[in-house]
Amino acid sequence: MTLKTFWHQLGSPRWFYQMSKPWLYVFGCLAFVLLLTGTVWGLGFAPMDGKQGNSFRIIYVHVPTAMVAQSAYILMGVAGLVLLVWRMKLADMVLAAVVPFGMSMTVLALVTGTLWGKPTWIAEGDDTWWVWDARTASMLVLLFLYFGLYALRQAIPRQEAAGRACAVLAIVGMINIPIIKYSVDWWLTLHQTSSISLTQAPTMPAEMWLPLVLNIVGIYCLLGANVLSRLRLEILRREQGTQWVRELALSGNA
After folding, report:
1. What is the mean pLDDT of residues 222-226?
2. Is residue 14 a part of any domain in this protein?
3. Are 163 and 90 in contact (CB under 8 A)?
4. Does any domain span residue 1?
5. C-beta of residue 65 within 8 angstroms of C-beta of residue 219
6. Using one digit for the tens of pLDDT, what is the confidence trace for 1-56?
7. pLDDT, position 126
8. What's residue 118's pLDDT?
9. Domain count of the chain?
10. Is residue 235 within 8 Å of 13, Cβ to Cβ?
11. Residue 151 half-sphere exposure, CB side, CA atoms within 13 Å?
């Protein structure tokens, strides 16, 4: 299959629905195995950090959720661009499917960040649950963007108009992603720098960073499984009046 053929087939919700079912199971199984292994290893068996003690273990939840929350928004920005340029209705369905997952991951990242930051910030002389530094503030902006996308779709009754409005907001909001990533480098902040990087050797021993990598890969598999599941439901909802959906319902293979 050529890239051009694949691109044209993506314009067919029926084709995507049929080909995505095996991937839903693959991503779901991988997410379960990787997240279970990484979480049990990190929370129960990884060595205690020399400075932060056991409080550092929240890294195995905080870092993966923060990363995937940003990646989910990037996915929506790309889908918004595809919708506006190529008018591909599957792209609008992707926009609608990603919002709930991205929103929940951003909330989890913010909550775990405050739980992790509390004892760390005390050591820095700041006894508080929340610090208005660049990283936490920009992550809060990301949450507001997710809320805005959800509310905007509910507020506009016409599906096509709602899709275009959400696409514009998703694209404009992309400017916040590099701010989140580089905020700890651009401004003075209490937030620590990246815990793991593709361009540098890990600063932690292997028994500490390996479970983190497992959870990062696992959370991205969970993103794939969740988005595919929601996307398939969105396809059935929007295509419910078509012949192929009626035949699918009669056959009981939906």
Report:
1. 98
2. no
3. no
4. no
5. yes
6. 677 777 778 888 999 999 999 999 999 999 999 999 999 999 999 998 877 888 88
7. 60
8. 72
9. 1
10. yes
11. 6
The CA distance from 52 to 195, in Å, is: 14
Query: What values do phi and psi take at 53, rounded to 5?
Result: 70, -145
Residue type, 78: V
In a domain, 13, yes or no: no
Q: Are 73 and 94 in contact (CB under 8 A)?
A: no
Per DSSP, helices labelled H in 156-175 are 159-173
SS3 176: helix
CB 15 within 8 A of CB 9: yes
Instruction: Classify the phi-psi angles of 87: left when phi > 0, otherwise alpha if psi is within -120 to 50, otherwise beta.
Output: left
pLDDT at 3: 74
Kindly write down the DSSP assignment for every residue of 48-73, as one continuous string: PBTTTBGGGGGHHHHHHHHHHHHHHH
Q: Is 114 exposed, middle or buried (0-12, 13-18, 19+ CB in 10 A)?
A: middle
Which residue segment(s) compose the domain that 161 sits in? 23-194+206-251
pLDDT at 191: 65
Which single residue is written with the structure tokens 């479970």? 211
pLDDT digits (tens, 9 = 90+) for 85-105: 999 999 999 999 999 999 999
Tokens of 164: 């275009």
- Side chain identity at 112, as an amino acid letter? T
Alpha carbon distance 166, 155 (integer Å): 11
* Residue 145 in domain: yes
The structure tokens listed for 36 are 């279970």
Q: Which long-range contacts (CB under 8 A, 24 or more apart) does 83-88 make?
A: 83/163, 83/164, 83/167, 84/164, 84/167, 84/168, 84/171, 86/11, 88/10, 88/11
Amino acid identity at 250: L
* 244 alpha carbon, distance to own chain's centre: 31
- Compute the distance between CA of residue 105 and CA of residue 115 in angstroms, rounded to an integer: 15
